[in-house]
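User: Quick sanity check before I run a bigger batch. Here is a single chain. Can you write out its predicted 3D structure?
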Amino acid sequence: MSPSLGKIGIWRVATQLDAELAAEIEQLGYGTIWVGGSPPADLAVVEQLLDATREITVATGIVNIWSSPAEAVAESFHRIDAKHPGRFVLGIGAGHREMNTDYRKPYQALVDYLDVLDAAEVPKSQRVLAALGPKVLQLAHDRAAGAHPYLTTPEHTRSAREILGDALLAPEQKVVVDTDPERARATGRETVGMYLNLANYTRNLERHGYTAEDVTPPGSDRLIDALALHGTAEQIAEGIDAHLRAGADHVAVQVLGDPAPAYRALSEALQLR
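Assistant: Done. Predicted structure follows.
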């Protein structure tokens, strides 16, 4: 059974998610909860969120292949899928050279990990890959349901769609519901700035029109405005829709700041109910 993600979901680090927020997110009309922050192999947080909701899909964005062994993750997948059939999507990724001490040949490591998932009968239709560059996007097309790119723009979405064909494309988009530009940029920089020390993200942004100066920490205003959309909920909804117009099937919205009021306002602006 293939899960339905809906057009719009939310993305939050596992430690920022709980049963109460999950239940409200479902009531607000969002289609998927993406669990970030490299949740451990037992995927207990995924099970807790599914237990607290009725129909919404829960996905990992992402399980880190270096810290969560494939065999253990496969066991967790089957435990969760047996309890909540078709509502769980397993997102996996190779993380970052700067943050994983045993990082080596990430592409081959992803292939090997997928081989273990295949042997354990984790269905292709319920797994996605964190993918930015052409090679891993192609792997996402060939060996998974599709791709879950992080820290990208509609320009990347457009080029990713060309590689993925009809496979799933579900980018993440950060937002700050704040009409004060300077304050909103400061909020955006606090999170985006962390990623500008990671080469795979900066290389990808440079491939899609940003300069070395743009991606040098703490990031240019132009870059921050694209990676952390700000303004009214209605203005942000237009920016989210730009990903859909560029070819995304689904957008995972990460609110920076107080989540509940922002997700309520965005639900109304995006007409999710």
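The domain at 8-172+246-269 is CATH 3.20.20.30 (TIM Barrel).

User: Great, the batch can go ahead then.
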